[in-house]
Amino acid sequence: SQRTLVLLKPDTVRRGLVGTVLARFEAKGLRIVAMEQRHIDAAQADAHYAEHVERDFYPPLRDFVTSGPLVALVLEGDQAIEVVRTLNGATDGRKAAPGTIRGDLALSNRENLVHGSDSEESAAREIALWFPHLA
Ligand code: ATP
């Protein structure tokens, strides 16, 4: 069994889709290990997106993820990292496959509802950042 860090980004909260998105992860069989709604500041955004801070898409991404509350969670299950990314779908909601969270519910490359850790190393780093008591 594996753990992964998931964010329901501020668009999910703003659009009233927290329950809808969470239901998909739960229905898949993933267990919620930790969950908390938070309104993060720029420093937390920079820490989470450390690998992207120099990219040209990052300043608007930072503004977006700090624009309102988000829900951070740790999900657990067999191959949870890959399973979550499959459920999330491609980064760009306009291109993501139907049946995925982004494919069904998002129409943007930036405001794409969810984040999921992309590797075991990222998951360990992100879980330690968001939920230090679990690290
Ligand atoms: P995440 O890491 O959030 O699960 P991802 O792995 O699909 O998503 P990354 O390439 O890691 O995507 O980019 C992180 C986030 O930055 C994306 O989820 C999206 O919100 C934003 N982003 C990525 N590329 C672009 C872009 N070209 N234009 C605008 N926003 C972007």
Topology:
Elements: E1 2-8, H1 10-14, H2 18-28, E2 31-38, H3 42-48, H4 58-65, E3 70-77, H5 80-88, H6 101-105, E4 114-116, H7 120-130
Write structural notes for this entry.
By secondary structure, the protein is α+β, with helices and mostly antiparallel strands. The chain has helices at 10-14, 18-28, 42-48, 58-65, 80-88, 101-105, 120-130, and strands at 2-8, 31-38, 70-77, 114-116. The structure holds adenosine-5'-triphosphate.
The oligomerization state is: single chain
Strand order of the largest sheet: 2-3-1-4
Determine the N-to-C terminus distance: 16 Å
Topology as H/E string? EHHEHHEHHEH
Question: Into which percent range does the helicity of residues fall?
Answer: 40-55%
Q: Average pLDDT across residues?
A: 98
Work out the radius of gyration.
Answer: 14 Å
Poorly predicted segments: none
Strand fraction band? 15-25%
The biggest beta sheet, please? 4 strands, antiparallel
List of distinct ligands in this structure: adenosine-5'-triphosphate
Categorize the overall geometry. globular
| Continuous helix count | 7
Structural class: alpha+beta
Q: In total, how many beta strands?
A: 4
Family: Belongs to the NDK family.
GO molecular function: ATP binding; metal ion binding; nucleoside diphosphate kinase activity
Function: Major role in the synthesis of nucleoside triphosphates other than ATP. The ATP gamma phosphate is transferred to the NDP beta phosphate via a ping-pong mechanism, using a phosphorylated active-site intermediate.
Catalytic activity: a 2'-deoxyribonucleoside 5'-diphosphate + ATP = a 2'-deoxyribonucleoside 5'-triphosphate + ADP; a ribonucleoside 5'-diphosphate + ATP = a ribonucleoside 5'-triphosphate + ADP
